[in-house]
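In the previous chapter we treated chains in isolation. Here, by contrast, the input contains two separate entities that must be folded as one system, with a combined length of 1044 residues.
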Amino acid sequence: MKLMRALLAALLLAAAGAAVHAQDTAPVERWGSKELTLDGPRDGNPFLEVDLAATFRQGARAIVVDGFYDGEGRYKLRFMPDSVGEWTYETRSNRPALDGKRGKFTVGPAQQGNHGPVQVKGTHHFAYADGTPFWQVGTTSYGWTHQPEATERQTLATLAAGPFNKVRMLVFPNQDVKHQPPRFPFEGTPPKGWDFSRFNPAFFRHLEQRVGDLRTLGIQADLILFHPYDKGYWGFDQMPAEVNERYLRYVVARLASYRNVWWSIANEFDYLTNKQMPEWDRYFEIVQARDPYQHLRSIHNAMVLYNHSKPWVTHVSVQSGAIAEDFERAVLLRDVYMKPVVYDEVKYEGNIERRWGQLSAQEMVLRFWTGAIAGTYVGHSEIFKDPDDMSWLGKGGALRGESPARLAFLRQILSASPAEGLEPIDKWQEYPFAGKPGAYYLGYFGRQAPVSWPFALAKPGLKDGMRFTAEVIDTWNMSITPVPGVFELRRQDNYSFADKDGRSIALPGRPYMALRIKKALD
Amino acid sequence: MKLMRALLAALLLAAAGAAVHAQDTAPVERWGSKELTLDGPRDGNPFLEVDLAATFRQGARAIVVDGFYDGEGRYKLRFMPDSVGEWTYETRSNRPALDGKRGKFTVGPAQQGNHGPVQVKGTHHFAYADGTPFWQVGTTSYGWTHQPEATERQTLATLAAGPFNKVRMLVFPNQDVKHQPPRFPFEGTPPKGWDFSRFNPAFFRHLEQRVGDLRTLGIQADLILFHPYDKGYWGFDQMPAEVNERYLRYVVARLASYRNVWWSIANEFDYLTNKQMPEWDRYFEIVQARDPYQHLRSIHNAMVLYNHSKPWVTHVSVQSGAIAEDFERAVLLRDVYMKPVVYDEVKYEGNIERRWGQLSAQEMVLRFWTGAIAGTYVGHSEIFKDPDDMSWLGKGGALRGESPARLAFLRQILSASPAEGLEPIDKWQEYPFAGKPGAYYLGYFGRQAPVSWPFALAKPGLKDGMRFTAEVIDTWNMSITPVPGVFELRRQDNYSFADKDGRSIALPGRPYMALRIKKALD
């Protein structure tokens, strides 16, 4: 009996030993993506029948990651390590060929430009995992990954040269009868002959390549998991709930290891009228449960707001045609939700007949500045009349509008602001300033065209004798002009401190002017 | 044995028979308050030691109502029947003298002016229980029930002659060192020598008298259960949680049978910094659990919003200094909460140095109209400089401002609007109209002073050939001027229908103008 037990133990050890992979030598950086590939069964339907996961360990930590079938008998597991040093892993599967595989690998420091995933910072702002502030300047290009290769490369070149650090983009193609997308997410025949039980790995590999391209560019991919722009044409907007749930698990298994992923459960969710609210809640819960890294999660509306106070919503993602025109509108949802607020759709720059696509560039830029001084973040896109129905909003390619240059300028200003984020200073008093009390103030006059601004700051954080310098910013012409001299404070009334000599700052009488005021370096 | 059992049964029957009250002949109307008075123990501390409740029954319905100790050996139970006919009751108590009391009484129809309690109607509006719309035109007079008799009578006379159908009012007195309130809610000695285990029934009887006076006037009493204006002076803002909970049960037991009661858990709840959020939730739950009639419940903020999407909140009660100045601000919280929205504090008419109390009458009225066309409701108050610190806001008495007359005019306009309530017509397009698509439109131009308005209506509910009449309303000068002729619609573009002959409505070039447009009676 003893002998038999010893023999069994030896056999088990040998088997385990055989399963230990050699030290994997491909270098992995912190917040990079470690990929394991395993050969496994091709029989039956691997998408439905094979379970695969792995536990990655470092010290006392254990992180469980779902694997996925990538076609042709290949199974993959992807892991985003958040700390350097040695990690080990061990797989679990209902198929012996995939079960009990173990190995280890070493994670090196993050390379330049890799700050980790973006997370919520404080109550109303974002930062990368390494602490670097993330000042969201987003755009939307729904179908850019469903275009011919040349167009997609042009989009990437445009993004590389542009101001945006986040792109909202559809996983599923939208309806486009004239230009059929090159790939579809399921096996089958367009427009509606799909086998919803079999994903098309090539479709997802392509999506991953593009998300990886954005990662290289330092751009967040705000992945829209469902959308109503299919209108039943491909039918991806009307799949059974079990297919939706399997799809969510598959997307998360494939893409969660990309540090630049955000999950947008849907765009204009309320236009998907065959899905009820509990279904949306369930989809949030699935993504929340399966994503080991807890990437940012939200959902975008048309006319009905999702209740962003639900616990699985990390930040507010809102469409509103009017909210970012006025800073006292924009500030309201901060207090309601106590989460970072992104106005992802505030109408678009363009010249089409639909009123959601006819903002002037000035109005597009105004919304970004208004959002910024309300302590919130705004999203851009553009749509101009085009004989081929080409638009940045729909397909990517080139940008034609005049706002992006000004948004690049804004992003510079934001990036030089306090790391804590811009906080509204005095929210109900027609006082359009945000910043950090006592240290930094960014004001914006929007459509008003004042010729002077009496130097006065709202009282929090101030006392007599404090000294400040100022700059006049022309947000449209992209100039920053220092104001000569230093302003010294004296209490003016119960609410404010003014310059002790009653001085004002001269302004040019044009709209879209801003002020930047900083505590003087003594 | 059989004999003994029969004897016991006979004794029990006799005892039960003795407990059956004669038919109570005092008439009770539907939604009136039926009061039962019982004599009971005076020993020990009845507030802590005696439990009393009664079940009121009609047919299959049973409604359990808490009783309360009213001092001097008297116990009371109050019940608000919501249907006519015969009701029975039976008490339950841990004291034999109060237990098992039974009786019956007959409820007659509601008398004139009694429409029952106010409830939520649809998503965003209010109605009385009998279906009559309730168009909230509220005011605030915090301490009006803590004044000398003459002042309180003056307040009631002012209310009787004024435009308001709701008053926000404090249960607990606020700090007022110069004028000590006549009564306190607990036994003991002011300012802080209270026995929190013993309520002062005379205090609550007085409060009930005033709530009853408001009921007679057809005015809702929005009872503020906690407030921060004590500042520790009386200490009612810093009682232990168990006292707060007992107080809530006592107030609900005493006052829930008044059909005009609304529960406001607190005013500026976030200024009561010694109470944390779970405590507020708990107070809501107590009121929700003990109130058999489910009177309206909300809570009012200073700088931090309570999450009004919590299930026990029936409607939104918000302070915001800026939200009701602009209809596209005001409309936002409707979509967030999907409940009726009342902006109970939007700054006040007055001339004090604090910026929350220096609105012009025009600005006060503007906020009401702006709120109305955003499909929301607004609250008034006023505070003028006064040598005796007398103000409507603080103590009641007389109104000095110029807004109330205009609010009476607004209330007339509202009362003549569709019973479903005013719904914003096209919320993101600088289109300041609310109403009922295809039937009724109320527009308001606020501070703008247009000289004409091109007749155009947003498309929902419209088709070519529909005919409308219009009136020009001067909201400040309180005039309604019919526009001659009838406007016939023709589709203008993808979003609107205009007058087929391109006509406009002439306007006087003054601010505060409104338009009322109704489908023509053919």
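Chain A has three domains: 20-108, 118-415, 432-519. Residues 2-19 of chain A form the longest helix (18 residues). Compare these points with the single-chain example from earlier in the chapter.
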